């Protein structure tokens, strides 16, 4: 680091400076009187005299944490799932008095689970959550719709866009416990571009997609994502788009999303991705169903383009 730099101001001593000083003092007095009137009304004017009163402290606004969050539950208890890091997307709504949300565990489960716990501790857990955010910024959530699945509870400290020092507990079904952390995910809005590589042919090509996320959950409890994509030097498709109704073809919760775009030949370009916590990059995979590129699969990384 370089040497500190000191700045010097030379005061003017010409007679006109007195006039400016007097005008400046008068202006400051007018602004002070206006502030007193705005803050306390006319009755408060007497308090703006020579003896200043105690400083005014505005009331603290109600804390609010609405938004799309990605939690990671680290199972430390012995038994099924020990050592696993389970990603959980949840859209939180409310203020400190009442916080609600619906969680989505972002991992594959078996379609049919005959034996108890065959899908892991979070298989069919009660994912409708309710709780509070305390004045000390501690978020507490518990399952509110009990059925045959495990009941979930958690608490952790909210600091800015992060949840730290958290713990969770699953009771009933497949019990588990451990630590939990989280981060708020920015909206999936903007144009992302990059290179995709087909695992079927080994071909690499340019892909650019413009995406827009809804600001509220749809009827399926997910954030809808609309968009279109352009492919350069791909085998068959040149452009794809999410058809209407959007909510039937897309969904996002936490950092994970999936959407189905349709090409001119009727092929469905299914894009799945994970948005980085800073919103700058997306790790994506794709597969094509139907059309002239049927059964092609691939992956790549897309980067947010500066507008």
Number of strands: 17
**CATH topology of the largest domain, anyone?**
Porin
Number of helices, where a helix is a run of at least 4 consecutive DSSP H or I residues: 1
> Percent of residues in helical segments?
under 10%
Features:
globular, Porin, eight-stranded antiparallel beta barrel, 1 helix, 2 domains, 17 strands, 307 residues, disordered N terminus, single chain, mainly beta, Lipocalin
Q: Please, could you describe this protein's structure?
A:
With 307 residues, this protein is mainly β. The protein has two domains: 67-107 and 119-184, Lipocalin; 190-304, Beta Barrel (Porin), CATH 2.40.160. The chain is 8% helix and 46% strand. It has one helix spanning 16-40, and strands spanning 67-75, 85-95, 98-105, 128-133, 138-143, 151-159, 162-171, 176-184, 190-198, 204-217, 223-232, 239-241, 250-253, 256-263, 268-275, 281-289, 297-304. An eight-stranded antiparallel β-barrel has the order 1-2-3-4-5-6-7-8. A hairpin with a 2-residue loop joins β13 and β14 (256-263). The radius of gyration is 28 Å and the shape is globular.
């Amino acid at each position: 680091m370089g040497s500190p730099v000191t700045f010097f101001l030379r005061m003017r001593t010409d007679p006109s400076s007195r006039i400016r000083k007097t005008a400046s003092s008068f202006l400051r007095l007018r602004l002070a009187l206006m502030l007193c009137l705005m803050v306390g009304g006319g009755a408060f004017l007497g308090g703006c005299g020579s003896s200043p009163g105690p400083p005014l402290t505005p009331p603290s606004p109600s804390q609010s944490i609405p938004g799309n969050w990605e939690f990671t539950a680290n199972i430390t208890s012995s038994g099924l799932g020990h050592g696993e890091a389970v990603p959980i997307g949840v859209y939180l709504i409310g203020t400190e008095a009442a916080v609600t949300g619906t969680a989505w565990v972002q991992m594959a489960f078996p379609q049919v689970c005959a034996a108890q716990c065959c899908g892991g501790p979070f298989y069919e857990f009660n994912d409708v959550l309710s709780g509070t955010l305390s004045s000390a910024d501690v978020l507490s959530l518990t399952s509110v719709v009990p059925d045959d699945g495990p009941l979930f509870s958690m608490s952790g400290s909210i600091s800015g866009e992060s949840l730290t020092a958290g713990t969770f507990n699953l009771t009933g079904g497949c019990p588990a416990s451990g630590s939990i952390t989280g981060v708020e995910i920015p909206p999936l809005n903007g144009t992302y571009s990059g290179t995709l590589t087909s695992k079927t042919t080994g071909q690499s090509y340019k892909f650019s997609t413009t995406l827009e996320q809804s600001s509220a959950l749809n009827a399926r409890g997910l954030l809808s994502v609309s968009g279109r994509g352009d492919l350069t030097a791909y085998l068959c498709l040149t452009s794809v788009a999410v058809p209407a109704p959007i909510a039937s073809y897309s969904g996002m919760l936490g950092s994970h999303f999936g959407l189905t775009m349709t090409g001119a030949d009727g092929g469905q370009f299914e894009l799945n991705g994970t948005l980085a916590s800073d919103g700058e990059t997306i790790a994506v995979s794709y597969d094509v169903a139907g059309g002239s590129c049927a059964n092609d699969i691939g992956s790549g990384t897309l980067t947010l383009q500066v507008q």
